[in-house]
Design brief:
Layout lengths: L12 E7 L10 H14 L7 H5 L3 H12 L5 E8 L3 E8 L4 H20 L12 E5 L2 H17 L16 H4 L11 H4 L5 H9 L2 H4 L16
Antiparallel strand pairs: 1-3, 1-4, 2-3
Helix pairs in contact: 1-4
Length: 225
């Protein structure tokens, strides 16, 4: 089970999870999804300004900023993600000291400001402390990736055949669709000779995962949609 006191060490892998306060639904809206995806790509780096200020720049200024950012060392490397209606998952590696904390803090704070402004809302949007599980083996790493990608299916949001084009997760990237440039797929796909084998690996677990039996000790439990 997740332990909030687990130390986040550089060059280690983690399953990161957090949900909204009172399980408020925030990621079902397409505009909200696009926003959180843009924030994910932006804040995986150490940035010189907030995303909201970045949005107010001219196109030329944006290009200059992005050129500097994308040539710098990222805080984290992202292998898998899922944005569910009221929570999110990342399978992630910390590349710099405090990288995960900085990434998650900036991501959540920026989205909360955007959301609060849109709905004239005040206060925190996400639970104060995000959950984390350290990934200790390659087998665990691969199973968690599958667990994250199957979350929308095991929660009955979509059918398994819809997962290939479901952009709330990083799964389309694992099928060769270059949708999200911030997702690193080679580490997992190197364990499979073809993209289809990873797809089969995920699909073949879909019904079983709904019971949360085989891998329940590898991932964060008691998730509510």
């Amino acid at each position: 089970m997740a332990n909030k006191k687990i130390i986040l060490a550089t060059n280690e892998f983690y399953h990161i999870f957090n949900r909204t306060i009172a399980n408020e639904v925030v990621f079902s809206d397409k505009h909200h999804l696009n926003r959180i995806l843009s924030l994910t790509n932006f804040y995986r780096f150490k940035v010189p300004l907030s995303y909201s200020k970045f949005q107010n720049l001219t196109n030329e200024e944006k290009e200059k900023i992005l050129s500097v950012i994308y040539h710098s060392s990222p805080l984290v490397e992202i292998y898998s993600f899922a944005f569910m209606p009221n929570h999110y998952h990342f399978l992630i590696k910390q590349l710099q000291d405090n990288g995960i904390n900085d990434f998650i803090s900036n991501l959540q704070n920026s989205f909360a400001k955007f959301y609060n402004k849109k709905f004239d809302r005040k206060g925190s949007l996400f639970c104060h402390s995000f959950e984390r599980v350290r990934v200790e083996t390659e087998e665990q790493f691969i199973h968690i990736s599958r667990y994250i990608h199957l979350n929308p299916v095991s929660s009955y949001l979509i059918k398994i055949e819809e997962l290939d084009d479901y952009y709330h997760t990083s799964f389309p990237n694992y099928l060769g669709k270059k949708i999200f440039n911030f997702v690193e797929t080679s580490y997992i796909l190197n364990h499979f000779k073809k993209n289809k084998r990873y797809k089969d690996f995920v699909y073949n677990q879909s019904d079983y995962q709904k019971k949360l039996q085989k891998i329940k000790n590898l991932v964060i439990e008691n998730i509510k949609v």
